[in-house]
């Protein structure tokens, strides 16, 4: 009953936060700039992916959005982490997948182990995003390998996955570069005799955050119990998902895996018995954003009639709205981010514009399945020694 009460309270908090954000619609220059960058990045990602004939255009579009940050330096760092994680994960999946794909007794626990290691590494590393992408890509390629039953087919799938991520990431960096260097070039050529004081003032408003000392992170030993708890939750959840998908062929396995990993990344320094609250908040906000995007997107799709111009216009508006909510300060930031990602899933089909909502609903169903399984695992683990902060220090070596 206590867990249900907490869940209801989190749902109310997310709903009220989103309501406040929409009611206080105040598009500042910084928020409008970020939204414009994200919209252009997604549009360019889709255009490039279609031009290259990539099979999963929506992965490129999501990469174009996910890499974009409010600062140019942040976008560059995130791009490097996304590419690095994807390449390493694709290579690992290509090497392991064909070897264990036809051995369920080895294949299923191996997927769980991959997810657990990825979550453990992400929660203790400055390159958390690389760990996440590496884990997700390795899981995806390894899982697909059991269907291909061929090293060559698996390698081709992995290469396409890397290409889709690379296209979206490149599009993001191109757009971010234009917004970052363009104003500087314009000011330099417009006022070549600019004084050093004026130049410094101009750079302070360019949108680049000043460098600051990184926040101190707790020693790894002190965070070990929490990281282990989260990694166990991820491993068990992905093992269950892999088993169900292997036997029942459940839809949206990729998104279920992404969900099980993404929501288990928490702020550093939390004790083991303090991780449940932030994870549940992310679960609630992820579901809320995805459901809103799914309902709105599926309602709009038939009106687009598969026409590229109308679909791109609706996609751009949805990305803009999601980015505006994401950059707000009313507590609904994660709702906005998940809304944007889900809206991209709905409108960007595999390799062409379409009004068919089935592919999007399959992906969104995977997110819901991932949340349900993870919630059940958290409930099952709750109350064990893993969540007891008083015994965690002595329980873990």
Automatic annotation (TrEMBL):
GO cellular component term of the entry, any: plasma membrane
Keyword Transmembrane helix: yes
Lineage: superkingdom: Bacteria
Keyword annotations of the record: Membrane, Transmembrane, Transmembrane helix
One of the record's GO molecular function terms: transmembrane transporter activity
Region (Disordered): 196-220
Name this protein carries in UniProt: Fusaric acid resistance protein-like
């Amino acid at each position: 009953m206590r867990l249900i009460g907490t869940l209801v309270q989190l749902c109310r908090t997310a709903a009220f936060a989103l309501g406040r954000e929409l009611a206080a619609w105040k598009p500042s220059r910084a928020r409008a700039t970020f939204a414009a960058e994200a919209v252009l990045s997604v549009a360019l990602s889709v255009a490039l992916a279609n031009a290259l004939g990539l099979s999963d255009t929506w992965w490129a579009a999501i990469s174009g959005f996910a890499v974009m940050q409010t600062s140019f330096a942040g976008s560059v760092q995130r791009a490097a982490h996304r590419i690095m994680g994807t390449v390493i994960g694709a290579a690992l999946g290509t090497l392991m997948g064909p070897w264990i794909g036809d051995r369920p007794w080895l294949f299923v626990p191996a997927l769980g182990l991959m997810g657990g290691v990825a979550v453990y590494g992400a929660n203790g590393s400055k390159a958390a995003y690389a760990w996440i992408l590496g884990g997700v890509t390795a899981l995806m390629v390894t899982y697909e390998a059991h269907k291909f039953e061929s090293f060559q087919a698996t390698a081709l799938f992995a290469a396409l996955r890397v290409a889709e991520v690379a296209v979206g990431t490149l599009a993001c960096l191109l757009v971010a570069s234009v917004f970052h260097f363009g104003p500087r070039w314009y000011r330099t050529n417009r006022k070549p005799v600019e004084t050093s004081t004026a130049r410094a003032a101009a750079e302070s408003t360019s949108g680049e955050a000043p460098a600051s000392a990184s926040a101190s992170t707790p020693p790894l030993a002190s965070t070990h119990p929490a990281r282990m708890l989260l990694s166990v939750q991820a491993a068990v959840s992905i093992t269950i998902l892999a088993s169900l998908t292997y036997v029942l062929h459940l839809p949206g396995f990729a998104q279920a895996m992404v969900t099980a990993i993404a929501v288990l990344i928490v702020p550093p320094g939390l004790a083991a018995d303090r991780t449940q609250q932030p994870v549940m908040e992310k679960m609630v906000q992820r579901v809320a954003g995805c459901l809103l995007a799914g309902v709105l997107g599926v309602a709009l799709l038939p009106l687009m009639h598969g026409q590229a111009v109308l679909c791109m216009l609706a996609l751009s508006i949805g990305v803009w709205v999601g980015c505006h909510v994401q950059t707000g300060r009313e507590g609904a930031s994660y709702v906005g981010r998940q809304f944007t990602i889900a809206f991209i899933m709905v409108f960007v089909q595999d390799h062409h514009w379409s009004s068919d909502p089935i592919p999007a609903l399959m992906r969104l169903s995977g997110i819901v399945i991932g949340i349900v399984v993870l919630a059940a695992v958290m409930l099952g683990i709750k109350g064990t020694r893993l969540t007891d902060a008083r015994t965690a220090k002595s329980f873990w070596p």
